[in-house]
Amino acid sequence: MTDLATYNFAYLDEQTKRMIRRAILKAIAIPGYQVPFASREMPMPYGWGTGGVQVTASILGPKDVLKVIDQGADDTTNAVSIRAFFQKVADVAVTTKTKEATIIQTRHRIPEEGLREGQTLVYQVPIPEPLRFLEPRETETRKMHALEEYGLMHVKLYEDIARNGHIATTYAYPVKVEGRYVMDPSPTPKFDNPKMHMSEALQLFGAGREKRIYAVPPYTEVVSLDFEDHPFEVQKFDKPCALCGAENVYLDEVVLDDKGGRMFACSDTDHCEDRRDCGHAGHMLARKEAAE
Amino acid sequence: MSAVPLLKVNDVSKFYGSRIGCRNVSFDLFPGEVLAIVGESGSGKTTLLSCLSTRLMPTSGIVEYHMRDGQYRDLARMGEAERRFLMRTDWGFVHQNPADGLRMTVSAGANVGERLMAVGDRHYGNIRAAASDWLERVEIGIDRIDDQPRAFSGGMRQRLQIARNLVTSPRLVFMDEPTGGLDVSVQARLLDLVRGLVHDLGLAAIIVTHDLAVARLLSHRMMVMKDGAVIEQGLTDRVLDDPREPYTQLLVSSILQV
């Protein structure tokens, strides 16, 4: 290691961590409010989770156990690289088990397994402003948050119903936090929105390019916006997971061949493996074993 | 018309640095009354309208509005939240260019429904019913409710903008050249529509226009502005038929007679 450049623990220098921690504390104090912070350049491109990585780097301690997921999976490129990054620059223990992790950095999913007190979920957020596509001016959206003018958010949902007959927003579904701020839960599927409500774990959101941090403290009310006659609903799947047979979980569609063959499997790979270890089996798994 | 003014304007002036926008304008506007502000380009009409509608802060003078609770409030001393609430409930603002007043990328129905959602309406069916009702009243076919204003003609856009403003039953509507950029037959239809709505709803309106025909058709009273000051005001018919000031005479006589 002597001939290599030496990094400070967890890559960021202490001054930067201090700055980010202050932003995090402020974000926790005002649930759902987007706190500006001086986002640093990270050794990865914007859009790959620079915000989440900075938040994780600032809260990470030597005793933490880190889990990184991308689309629910522990073994995809983004998850593997970020996990390797923190192993290298912070030498922390890593895991793929949701139960064992103290910090979980995620893109898109909240683990199926219920989080508990003491765990922290760090989201990588591309566009933190829920009003952005309706109102391009940042000065105006800030004012709208300040004055709680959220009628526009419902205009978006109205458009959905007018075009599709139902609320067709399936991800980044806007929520109201603690009855005050409307927040974009980052591109998680709306399936995960109910898990944010009264979550036991601390939830931190980092947007690197947009330079914003926001938070949902434990046991905070998170309500998905809807209409009285078109209430909020999560996605439903008509089949259980093909590998572990789990129901009421979020499934990924996997194309198997060019003849229209496809399967639906848990997007949360850790949850799926856990269930299989416990002896649960879906119909595709059983067939595979029979073939062997 | 009741005897209590809806809007009291007292000695309003607006300076842009050392340049005059408008100066020493005073008048009262009563409920149900339509006031036209006419004058040539650069005479301060739009500046005055902006000062009245709180889009600009006057340099001096006071604009007071008769709130629904019966109190007069100085608009300049109102909090921003309250002012914005007033603007989207009790007031309307019709821009010359409909693109400024509409959301061009959301459907006509959502454009009309936006104000309802802003004041807390959360029932899709009710919002849609109100939107269809208003589209019908401004003569836009119900089959266009899910089309974006981008697909509308100039006249339809302007009518949609009017519907969007009137859905919360405001008491006061500001209009900045509402017929600008429309051809004459479309103008005539729009004017007819606005006249009907103003009459049916008992709206008070302040209309800025350089077109004396618009003032003649819509307004009860008019003010003529020149170089930032009001040089003549009175009943519309009186001002147009018997102008006193030389400038007003010039203005009236410069209309082309076909």
UniProtKB/TrEMBL annotation, chain B:
Pfam families for this protein: ABC_tran (PF00005)
Domain of life from the UniProt record: Bacteria
Keywords, ordered alphabetically: ATP-binding, Lyase, Nucleotide-binding
GO aspect biological process, one term: organic phosphonate catabolic process
PROSITE patterns noted in UniProt: ABC_TRANSPORTER_1 (PS00211), ABC_TRANSPORTER_2 (PS50893)
InterPro entries, per database record: AAA+_ATPase (IPR003593), ABC_transporter-like_ATP-bd (IPR003439), ABC_transporter-like_CS (IPR017871), P-loop_NTPase (IPR027417), PhnK (IPR012700)
NCBIfam families: CP_lyasePhnK (TIGR02323)
Record family assignment: Belongs to the ABC transporter superfamily.
Official protein name in the record: Phosphonate C-P lyase system protein PhnK
Organism: Ensifer canadensis
Lineage summary: Bacteria, Pseudomonadati, Pseudomonadota, Alphaproteobacteria, Hyphomicrobiales
